[in-house]
């Protein structure tokens, strides 16, 4: 015998099915809701003649965006420190305020010494190493501030970027020093097919490309957890490229060393040109210190942040294998300042064109007003005026017989 199923039973089953449907959280989905009270999904209207069911449906869009799932369970201390296991931890260790202050003071002293030596020897090209040591000073100074406010993302990002990128300035300075040494000491002023200006241009531009790659990786490494590993891999690629360029550069430095030994044995080096050894040895020492620092960073990032890799969880690794090598690389140029050896007319190396290119093309918004070369080129043109196209002179008539042109400067007096 077939029994008639009540309408209210069908409505109740429909409500249970709708409430049991799983909700998507990764993408928007459509739901079915009534226009009336949200707790009532159907309304039944009974008339005197027949019994019917009227259900008003309203199509609404639910956008369930991923919310911040970070729920700290440990309150930060007075310096903002929380254990590394917490989601809001910016450091995997407790950063030392005193160590950061000490590093900032040391690099600050080196900055002042380099500035004084640059002024005394009038070596303008040393601004490159000044940039490197200044970035180290500011980087560790901001790190000291971050040690007192460990929940500040901006301080942590700034200190990490400056410390990671500052060695590239010192590396570029090493390239420039060897190029000037070739121009100063070698009579032919070239090594193989490389002239000093071309050598400096090539390696500085390669160093700049490595700078861009490392900067992109450094910024990504400070992002979300999903971006950190990609950023670390990009940064590792950047410092790997930097080390490859250093090895290629060392090949040229060794070739220069052999050539200088030949010139020394031949007695062609006299006066100040006999001081090539201390400059070259300082160059070797600086590149070696940078290489130690690169190897440390490669080991640190290649092993990841697992428990088997103790480097990211201890701060002293960074000071021993990053801060100290970079301080040594900079101190070597304080002990042997290039400006004290590369002096005289032979020290004036022709421009590589990098500064002119960057200045003239980079200052297009201001018409090259900040570029000395562009200012000199435009200085003689500001008082010149263009003659009209219809101002035609005869072939046999001297120019002086014509009346002064209305386009000529007012202060100009022609000679008759």
TrEMBL record:
InterPro entries: RTA1 (IPR007568). It comes from the Eukaryota. Pfam families: RTA1 (PF04479). Its main location: membrane. It is found in: Membrane. The chain crosses the membrane at residues 99-116, 123-142, 162-186, 198-220, 232-257, 278-296, 316-336. Residues 1-20 form the signal peptide. It is a multi-pass membrane protein. Keywords: Membrane, Signal, Transmembrane, Transmembrane helix. The keyword Lipoprotein does not apply. GO terms for cellular component: membrane. This is Uncharacterized protein. It comes from Penicillium atrosanguineum.
């Amino acid at each position: 015998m077939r029994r008639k199923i009540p309408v209210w039973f069908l409505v109740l089953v429909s409500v249970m099915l709708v409430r049991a449907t799983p909700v998507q959280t990764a993408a928007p989905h459509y739901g079915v809701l009534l226009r009336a009270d949200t707790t009532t999904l159907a309304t039944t209207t009974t008339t005197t003649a027949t019994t019917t069911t009227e259900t008003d449906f309203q199509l609404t869009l639910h956008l369930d965006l991923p919310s911040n799932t970070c729920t700290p369970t440990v309150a930060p201390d007075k310096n903002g420190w929380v254990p590394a296991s917490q989601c809001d931890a910016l450091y995997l260790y407790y950063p030392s305020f005193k160590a950061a202050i000490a590093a900032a003071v040391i690099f600050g002293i080196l900055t002042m010494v380099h500035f004084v030596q640059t002024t005394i020897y009038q070596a303008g090209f040393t601004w490159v190493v000044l940039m490197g040591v200044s970035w180290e000073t500011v980087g560790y100074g901001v790190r000291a501030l971050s040690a007192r406010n460990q929940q500040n993302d901006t301080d942590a990002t700034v200190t990490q970027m400056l410390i990671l990128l500052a060695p590239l300035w010192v590396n570029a300075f090493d390239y420039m020093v060897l190029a000037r040494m070739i121009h100063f000491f070698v009579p032919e002023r070239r090594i193989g097919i490389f002239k000093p200006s071309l050598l400096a241009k090539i390696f500085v531009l390669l160093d700049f490309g490595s700078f861009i790659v490392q900067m992109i990786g450094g910024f990504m490494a400070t992002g979300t957890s999903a971006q950190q590993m990609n950023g670390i891999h990009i940064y590792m690629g950047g410092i790997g490229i930097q080390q490859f360029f250093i090895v290629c550069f060392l090949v040229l430095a060794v070739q220069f060393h052999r050539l200088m030994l030949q010139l020394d044995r031949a007695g062609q080096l006299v006066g100040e040109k006999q001081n090539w050894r201390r400059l070259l040895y300082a160059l070797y020492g600086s590149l070696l210190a940078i290489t130690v620092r690169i190897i440390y960073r490669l080991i640190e990032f290649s092993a990841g942040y697992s428990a088997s890799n103790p480097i990211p969880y201890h701060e002293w690794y960074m000071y021993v294998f990053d801060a100290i090598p970079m301080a040594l690389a900079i101190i070597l140029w304080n002990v042997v300042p290039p400006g004290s050896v590369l002096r005289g007319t032979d020290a004036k190396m022709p421009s590589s064109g990098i500064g002119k290119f960057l200045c003239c093309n980079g200052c297009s918004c201001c018409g090259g007003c900040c570029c000395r070369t562009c200012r000199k080129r435009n200085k003689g043109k500001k008082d010149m005026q263009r003659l009209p196209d219809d101002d035609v002179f005869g072939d046999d008539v001297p120019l002086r017989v014509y009346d002064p042109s209305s386009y000529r400067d007012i202060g100009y007096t022609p000679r008759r």
